[in-house]
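Tutorial, part two.
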Amino acid sequence: MHWAEKMANRLIAEHPQRQTYVCASGISPSGSIHIGNFREVVTTAFVAKALRRAGKEVRFIFSWDDFDRFRKVPAHIDPGFAHYIGLPYSQVPCPYGCHASYAAHFESEFEQALQVFEIEPEFIYQSREYQSGRYHPQILHALRRRGEIYDILMSFKTGESSADERAAFYPIHLYCGQCGKDSTTILDYNDTAETVAYRCGCGHCDTVHIPQADNIKLHWKIDWPMRWQQEQVVFEPGGRDHSSETGSYNVAAVIAEQIFGYPPPVYEPYEFISIKGSFAKMSSSSGHNYTPDDLLRVYAPENILFLFAKYQPNAAFHIGLDEDVLRNYAEFERYAAGARAGTLTGDLAGALELSLRSDSPVSAGSNVSFGQVASLLPLINFDRDKLREMFNINNVEIDELRLQRVADRAEYWIRNWMPHKLVTIQASPNYAYYHSLTGVELRWLRSLCSLLRSRELDETQLMTEIYAICHHEDKKTMRIQQKRLFTIIYQLVLGAEEGPRLPWLIQAAGTEQMLNLLDL
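Running the prediction step on this input gives:
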């Protein structure tokens, strides 16, 4: 049974009377949301999907923490944006001038990517929630019980608490009414009047009436459990950084129960994802990351979803855009074929099923292999019409739109990530290599050229005859010789050690050009 199905069954068993199962995730829009962050939302999406398949009503919410402070200027943003550090993300200008705010730009970017995956949560924008006054009762409640909250926080720390520190503790951030930043110090809280007095580093002082305030936010470890209670959340994942014994989740769980009177949701910790060849954590601020859009230029959405679905959330893995792309595509295509044949079972079958979108090729079948397309395109100068013609000649059923998408991704991958695969058919013979061959190898080539001149052989017959060129009583020796013959062909025709299946290479080059390069 797939891990998402197990989680769904656990939630149903622990909350048998629930009408609606609220599954949550959330991210701060500090920059372009990368594929490591994507694990946050896709983990929830898989559990929500499994619950729906079990016949349950699900509310899948995604919180944009855009009322958090702007902490650091990312590598790709104008360094002058350091001027805005301390403002909430929702009040920082759009760095590219195309959206209402910094937050709106990166929120829109990620939301559009999620649509491609058919992940459609209910988006909650925390700046709007806080500024609408929705959380005013919870803010007042937290302020009135700030001493207890302080004690809970200190119970997770090794340092000693003090009466003075406890008296001066306030569980809120307050953005200045003058400069808009959180460079404020709270001077006093008046419970009767429900006011907070503060002083800002900019010199501004003020007293705020909390039921009318639009500039107060709870600290993260109080904000998180407050929202569990408000939204009645039963499931939420969290990164490894929140999942230690003294991490945010365990702190928030105690605050949820003791302060807000709500049992914490079932929690699923997930591991970070790394870029292949790097041990550094992906980061929006450093620019060291792949975004979903980066991967979607190379992978189909269902392939990306499968990468996440096949691993347990607590399993780390890396993503590379090198030869791993061919391996990942081949794996997905193999499992998809198994699903169509009814032979794929267990966790992998569940992972594949959770990865499918409404237009995924698996159920209907797809004869278009990414690896095959990637090996052919450079040989035909990325000519889509020629590619389509070759599939038709070989009686391969194709979906025109799907073939176009595979070709577009393969071309992008080759040109941007694997330029050494820009292999073309040689324009002139390689005499030096040809004359380095042994007498036996030259006899193989002459036999091959004789076969190429025969117009009566279909693909199956041709390949049977080509393999027979290297016939030997010892099967191991024969396989070695056959491999050597193919290497010779690829070297003379492509100047490379390997290439597409020989019948496709012959079609791409044309019989005449093949003979020009082989019959010397």
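The first strand starts at residue 20 and ends at 27. In part three we will examine how such features are distributed along the chain.
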